[in-house]
Amino acid sequence: MEYELDGIIVSNHGGRQLDGCISSIAALPAVVNEVGGRIPVLFDSGIRKGTDVVKALALGADAVLLGRPYVYGLAINGKEGVQEVLDNFIYDLDATMATAGVDAVSALTRDILVRK
């Protein structure tokens, strides 16, 4: 069966209520492999800081979606609060990448991750 898709979002909204579900981050590599670059893969599950972004991008996501963080900024300080959340996210992403010795998002690969 063929489907015409513009992209796919890997997420397990509600998954934390179901005992034994695979986490979105654990499912991400298999989805990326299956898609094989034919469409963008977006990741939306628990992105709260720069390290979360680095992990998702290193595992093959083309982009991440920010759920709650921007809403917190909006609730606290409106448009300026959202801007501050985004600025802090970018700073944290840059700091995480620098600490990992990576100078570009395009250089994030599975090789930088260590599984214990």
UniProtKB/TrEMBL annotation:
Cofactor(s) needed for function: FMN
Top-level division of the source organism's lineage: Bacteria
Q: Report the Pfam families cross-referenced here.
A: FMN_dh
Q: Does the keyword Oxidoreductase apply?
A: yes
Kindly provide the name given to this protein in its UniProt entry: FMN hydroxy acid dehydrogenase domain-containing protein
**Record key words, sorted:** Oxidoreductase
Which residues belong to the signal peptide in this entry? Answer: none
Q: Mind telling me which PROSITE patterns this protein's record contains?
A: FMN_HYDROXY_ACID_DH_1, FMN_HYDROXY_ACID_DH_2
Q: Which residues form the FMN hydroxy acid dehydrogenase domain?
A: 1-116
Q: Does the keyword Oxidoreductase apply?
A: yes
What's the source species for this entry? Sutcliffiella horikoshii
